[in-house]
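Support request, please re-run this one:
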Amino acid sequence: MVTTLAIDCGGGGIKGSVLDEAGTMRARPIRVPTPYPLPPALFIKTLLDLSTELPRADRVTVGMPGMIRHGVVVSTPHYVTRAGPRTRVDPELVAEWAGFDVQSGLADAFGVPVLVLNDAEVHGAGVVAGTGLELVLTLGTGLGCALFDGGALAPHLELSQASFRWGTSYDTYVGEPERRRLGDGFWSRRVRGVVEGLRPVFLWDRLYLGGGNSRLLRPDQVARMGDDVVVVPNTAGILGGVRAWTIRAG
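Re-run finished. Output below.
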């Protein structure tokens, strides 16, 4: 039996568990706060330290925020800041992370095969049905995005950084700070507005809303989004760690 250490890395916390081939957790998930400032070396050490509290696994799946291409960091929005999301960006951290082969670095550190994808892509791997065009949006510190066509993963788009309204990015417009400021009711209306705005862009067969804040969406707003919109649990960020190894690139 092949076991997988699945690690879901967010702006505020990093959590992981070990799963068997069926996606069943073999240990209770462990969560640690994301440390800041966070250069690549500390990121790798944090993941290694977390793994010591879990059973040994045959391979590792890591989902992390930002643009990840073939295991290499093109950009990451939170880990280049001095004290966490929405704080000042540190130019030295930008330079350290840009072009960093995080997949190879983690493989060397763990001594087993490692797969690194955008966190929304791993989340999506845990929920997509594999038929039609399926869009995954994760609601947490910011907004994550992953697109699947017939189960094949499309090239990643950093939708979160696109301008949505009043010159504000999607990341800011529906991110955690705005949810706290507005309250769940008004924030849920914002999320519905984002969904309605994206519908004619993607014309999806199904949209999945996940991430830690998806559970806070008001049921009346979810109902108004339509039957093709499904709210999924945040545990998909870990459960997708097994299925992520079988998804095809588009």
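DSSP finds nine helices and 15 strands in the chain. The chain has a mean pLDDT of 95.
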